[in-house]
Amino acid sequence: MTKLSSKMHILIVISSIIIALGLALGLIFHFTSGSFFNYGGDYKTVNTVTVNYALADQSETFNKDSITEECNKVFEENGVCVVTKTYAETTQGGEIVFQFAAGEETYKTLQTCVEKITANLKLNDASMSGLSVVAASQVNAVKGGCKALLNCGIAIIVAAVLQFVYLAIRYKWTMAIGAFLANVHNLAIFIALLAITRIQISSAVFAFGAITVLATMIGCGILFGKMRKAFNAESNAKVDAKDVSDAAACDSLKPMAVLYLALVIALVVIALVSAIGSLSFASLIMPALCAVVCFISTLYGTAIFTPSVYSRLAAIHHNKANS
């Protein structure tokens, strides 16, 4: 097997290119479509218009298609496209929520639409039998997953710092630095691949982000446990530190791959079972795609990138200790 330590510079370049490409594409999409990531569902930032109607007689039912048709007409005239619409019953009648793409210009246009819709529906009240009140509410800019992403990021940072402290006490400070670099690197690769592939951000993606860090921590435990055992072995007393690190990394590759694959499969099954009721292609396929990204970024970062970088740190520390 080719020494990982000799490939450190190449691996750093590869990782840097992936991260830089993800950052560049994310920024492009942020300024062109208003979102660094491809948020989906409840995590997507959108503009909404809510139309409320009340029935004159609560025992009557009302065909909401006439209101929907009037609203769609106004939206089309003003050049805004309805992404989705949902209907709900209320105690007095019902409401229709129209969802649109995010953006300041869309927000301003929708405010004009609301005024026209309100005026048109009031004029048409007489022809809409059974209605007592029809009104379009103000436009709402609904913030999506930014807050959830921030909270997830804070939790991940705290976990990475705690692991750094643990490894610094339990093993060596070089291993603590190596584990911290692995967490930062793997998460950066995971985020970059999400930006590049445009996988929809959902609760499953947040779970896989946490799994990426958790799996990295477990992988670093396996990796540095084997390295510590190898460095303490008398047979390796005169062996170059880079060779010891490479051998330990090679021994860690198989158990890491099996462990990561098991974690990812388990999480995919949970995500698919929870999403099966929606019968949505996106809700079924996105967790699987995210699992592939998680597996690749974690296995590459922990089993290949981290040993190549740590072997240099170990060699420097070993040489200083013996000088």
Structure notes:
With 323 residues, this protein is α+β, with helices and mostly antiparallel strands. It folds into 2 domains: 5-34 and 145-322, Multidrug efflux transporter AcrB transmembrane fold; 46-142, 2-Layer Sandwich (Alpha-Beta Plaits), CATH 3.30.70. Helices cover 67% and strands 12% of the residues. The protein is built from 8 helices and 7 strands; from the N terminus they run αββαββαββααβααα. The chain has helices spanning 8-33, 65-77, 104-123, 146-170, 173-197, 203-232, 241-275, 281-322, and strands spanning 38-39, 46-55, 84-89, 93-101, 131-136, 140-142, 200-201. The strands form 2 sheets. Strands 2, 3, 4, 5 and 6 form a 5-stranded antiparallel sheet that branches. A hairpin with a 3-residue loop joins β3 (84-89) and β4. α5 (173-197) runs antiparallel to α6, α5 packs antiparallel against α8 (281-322) and α6 packs antiparallel against α7. The longest helix is centred in the last third of the chain and has 42 residues, at 281-322. The chain is elongated. The two termini are 30 Å apart. The relative contact order is 0.13.
